[in-house]
Q: What sequence folds into this?
């Protein structure tokens, strides 16, 4: 993590146009969707998820807005350029997924979009496919082969007169590759090998990487004849004989997963295998894989017809899962979806804070296999990190670097003051492994993987803590995460001890291991320094106050993910006070305030927090952000916030709808997984919780908080309707049998009072907007995409940076050219800057009009900062903050920038137009 960077509002105009999507399927208050046989909700997943499809009704030419499609290991961002172009990547190709695989381009003669009168591109979440339809005679479907690195492009093209089809694989300039991933041999990543033969074509990089990374991007064709061609050292081509139906298969085959590290042969083998299986069967298998994925859980979170937050939930789940099943985790920035060539940021490691945002929701959504991939990064590196702990600290225990490389190296940590003295990461990693056990009941995993990691993390703290003359343990100096450096008793360290030590003692007793260590661990717990409190709120460390280095709300780590306080805890009010006075509300793309609000039962705050995060960071119509501090964590933390708003079980109590908004129009329904393997289902409508359904997977004891306060409740086993318990208390506890369903219901209004229903939906057909924000999903017909141009109303004048500043404002331009295209950069203070897309040129009102447009500026200066004024007629004016100067195209371009105007004239009014 680092400090905030400017935000480019590429979809600003889109935010001014509201196209309402279909209303969610909402059952009547007299209906209930619970299925007593399955113990989950009755959902028609195909129709329900279709209302959350992302739809482009206009061809998108901006790579950053490309729709995302992936099979769990390989992904592609797709846009319209010289046919259909996609940047592909795979999660296991390079260290921390730094280097993307390359570009795949499908072009035809005439082009696919030639002469079209109708266009729609649809990301089907339920099927996991991306389908582009041109009129009624051209359809391109991008899909994948499950449990592999292979993707496919299926073409149905019945046009007469198609004379040529080409599939190009290409790379950007390999000589521009930088060592941002701490790779030991940069030259091998700048070296490209090619092949073109009867099997297809391919490009390879990293073939001599000492860490065994590297890959081959290769393609072949099923259903049409082709010839293979090497175009140049970074481009190969399949010349395909035109056919009405054919499939192009491509793979990003990773060396590290290839027999003998031979990614070239592996790529050829993968392509041969998928061709032998065939498109129809592979598509069916792929769809079935995604269908099974979705059926593991369900959420509905809607305020009346507004289901935007819910739509992001499903889109974010898809985007993370589409790259989350590799040998290595989905990197919080690199992932498998990007349109930035090989350019990336912070690729020398996995930042735990950011990665936890991506992954920590997936236990509750019943995808422990996704969390397992994240945990595996740390458990497989136990020996390496333990050895380094001894080298660095002389402690027989486990210190885990906050910024850790794929092999457990700490080079990204020890050279950074932000994370150099951060000690609590090992506890978080150990706790997530323990939680994997609690959700799956896998005792073998607990004994062989989780407990050894927990024990070593405890031993590190035991060796690192100091003890005063009174026998009290304290942390003399460490970082309170990245925000407060070298402080005493960082709250993260004290919370880590209070979380992990008792759990480790408990597990050692459960497993009958290390009895001789428990007393020493308990002594630390019994004599640990207290948390610092001031004005009724927790402090991030003991006084004195430390300079702020980052914008994390460190004191709230107690609430989540350390699970030390929340609803019903003795210190609840102190925790709420801490939330209310937190210093950095929603300070960056990785902020987790809305999760903290949910854990504290603050439903309106959590709801508004989810909206705030999307308003600030969901900048593109494909659901992605332009904030380079992270790409996927704001999506992942959205999932956690919604799950925690609907159901909580972190303190071994099942609590339904603990933090939903107070709006009477709110409708919530879910099937989520609680600790100890309880599939929990419930529905809330018109302010009323209807029931709590429990499907016990492992036969553990259940403890459910009464959602109706003191109304009498009963526990009914659905198989024989036996009443197992009744209560008017705050909670009820009951024994369960594995694979058995129970209902907690009001005695006065049992579940049988509700008519049975199935939750359905209607397919989305257009753009959705988050009301009151510029955030949108999808593109409406004719809606601008990509960069914006500014056109003055008088004589349709374009603002144009002609010739890098010469003749800067040109009147009556017939079309928008590259020098007229600008990104709007949000400076975070109500102002914007304008950056031309060519050569990164800034629009700069230098010296109040003299030499007004300056090229290739490296930072935003005073004369480049403009306030955006919304005029009543729908136009905008831009006023520089220096001397209140207006940007004015006076006299058709002569003396174009005039300072100190007192009113807005016609030459100062601009409309935002498509580029």
A:
């Amino acid at each position: 993590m680092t400090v905030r960077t400017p935000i480019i509002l590429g979809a600003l105009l889109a935010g001014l146009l509201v196209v309402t999507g279909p209303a969610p399927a909402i059952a009547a208050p007299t209906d209930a969707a619970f299925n007593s046989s399955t113990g989950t909700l009755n959902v028609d997943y195909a129709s329900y998820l279709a209302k959350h499809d992302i739809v482009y009704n206009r061809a998108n030419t901006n790579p950053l807005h490309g729709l995302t499609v992936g099979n769990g290991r390989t992904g592609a961002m797709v846009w319209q350029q010289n046919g259909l172009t996609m940047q592909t990547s795979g999660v296991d190709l390079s260290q921390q997924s730094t280097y993307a695989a390359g570009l795949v381009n499908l072009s035809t003669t005439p082009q696919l979009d030639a002469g079209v009168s109708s266009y729609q591109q649809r990301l089907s979440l339920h099927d996991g496919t991306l389908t582009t339809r041109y009129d009624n005679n051209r359809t391109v479907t991008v899909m994948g082969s499950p449990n592999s690195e292979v993707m496919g492009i299926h073409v149905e093209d019945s046009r007469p007169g198609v004379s040529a089809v080409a599939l190009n694989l290409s790379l950007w300039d390999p000589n521009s590759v930088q060592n941002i991933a701490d790779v030991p041999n940069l030259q091998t990543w700048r070296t490209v090998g090619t092949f073109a033969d009867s099997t297809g074509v391919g490009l390879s990089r990293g073939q001599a990487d000492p860490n065994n990374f590297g890959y081959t991007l290769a393609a072949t064709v099923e259903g049409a004849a082709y010839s293979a061609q090497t175009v140049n050292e970074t481009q190969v081509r399949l010349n395909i004989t035109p056919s009405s139906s054919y499939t192009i298969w491509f793979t990003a085959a990773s060396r590290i997963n290839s027999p003998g590290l031979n990614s070239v042969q592996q790529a050829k083998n993968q392509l041969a295998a998928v061709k032998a299986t065939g498109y129809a069967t592979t598509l069916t298998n792929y769809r079935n894989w995604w269908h099974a994925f979705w059926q593991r859980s369900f959420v509905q979170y809607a305020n009346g017809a507004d289901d935007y937050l819910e739509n992001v939930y499903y889109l974010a789940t898809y985007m993370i899962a589409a790259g989350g099943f590799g040998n290595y985790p989905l990197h919080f920035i690199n992932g498998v979806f990007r349109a930035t060539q090989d350019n990336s940021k912070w690729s020398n490691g996995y930042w735990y804070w950011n990665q936890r945002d991506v992954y920590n929701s997936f236990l509750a959504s019943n995808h422990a296999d996704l969390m397992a991939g994240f945990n595996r990064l740390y458990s497989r590196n136990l020996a390496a990190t333990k050895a380094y702990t001894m080298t660095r600290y002389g402690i027989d225990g486990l210190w885990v670097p906050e910024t850790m490389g794929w092999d457990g190296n700490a080079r990204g940590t020890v050279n950074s003051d932000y994370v150099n003295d951060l000690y609590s990461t090992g506890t978080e990693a150990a706790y997530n492994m323990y939680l994997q056990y609690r959700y799956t009941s896998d005792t073998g995993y607990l004994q062989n993987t989780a407990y050894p990691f927990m024990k070593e993390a405890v031993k590190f703290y035991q060796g690192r803590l100091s003890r005063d003359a009174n026998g009290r343990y304290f942390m003399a100096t460490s970082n309170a995460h990245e925000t407060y450096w070298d402080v005493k008793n960082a709250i993260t360290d004290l919370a880590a001890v209070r979380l992990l030590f008792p759990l480790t003692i408990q597990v050692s007793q459960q497993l009958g291991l290390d009895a001789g260590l428990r007393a020493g661990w308990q002594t630390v717990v019994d004599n640990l320094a207290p948390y610092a409190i001031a004005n009724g709120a927790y402090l991030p460390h003991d006084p004195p106050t430390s300079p702020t280095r980052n914008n994390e709300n460190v004191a709230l780590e107690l609430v989540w993910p350390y699970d030390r306080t929340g609803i019903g805890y003795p210190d609840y009010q102190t925790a709420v006070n801490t939330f209310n006075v937190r210093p950095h509300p929603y300070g960056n793309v990785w902020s987790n305030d809305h999760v903290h609000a949910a854990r504290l039962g603050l439903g309106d705050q959590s709801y508004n927090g989810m909206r705030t995060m999307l308003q600030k960071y969901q900048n593109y119509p494909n659901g992605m952000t332009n904030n380079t501090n992270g790409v996927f964590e704001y999506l992942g933390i959205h999932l956690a916030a919604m799950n925690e708003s609907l159901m909580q079980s972190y303190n071994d109590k099942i609590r339904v709808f603990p933090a939903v908004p107070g709006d009477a129009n709110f409708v919530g329904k879910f099937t989520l997984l609680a600790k100890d393997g309880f599939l929990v289902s419930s529905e809330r409508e018109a302010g009323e919780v209807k029931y709590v359904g429990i499907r016990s997977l492992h036969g553990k004891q259940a403890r459910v908080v009464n959602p109706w306060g003191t109304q009498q409740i009963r526990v009914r086993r659905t198989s024989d309707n036996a009443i197992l318990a009744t209560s008017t208390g705050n909670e009820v506890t009951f024994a369960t049998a594995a694979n058995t369903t129970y209902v907690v219901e009001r005695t006065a209004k049992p579940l049988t009072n509700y008519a049975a229903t199935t939750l359905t939906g209607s397919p989305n057909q257009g753009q959705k907007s988050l009301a009151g924000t510029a955030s949108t999903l999808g593109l409406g017909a004719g809606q601008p995409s990509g960069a914006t141009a500014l056109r003055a109303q008088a004589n349709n004048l374009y603002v144009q940076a002609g010739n890098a500043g010469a003749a800067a404002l040109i009147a009556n331009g017939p079309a928008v050219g590259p020098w007229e295209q600008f990104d709007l950069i949000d400076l975070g203070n109500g102002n914007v800057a304008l950056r031309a897309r060519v050569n990164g040129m800034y629009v700069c009102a230098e010296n109040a009009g003299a030499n007004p447009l300056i090229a290739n500026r490296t930072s935003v200066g005073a004369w480049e900062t403009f306030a955006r004024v919304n005029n009543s007629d729908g136009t905008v004016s831009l006023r520089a903050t220096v001397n209140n100067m207006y940007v004015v195209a006076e006299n058709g371009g002569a003396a174009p920038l005039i300072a100190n105007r007192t009113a807005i004239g016609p030459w100062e009014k601009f409309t935002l137009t498509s580029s």
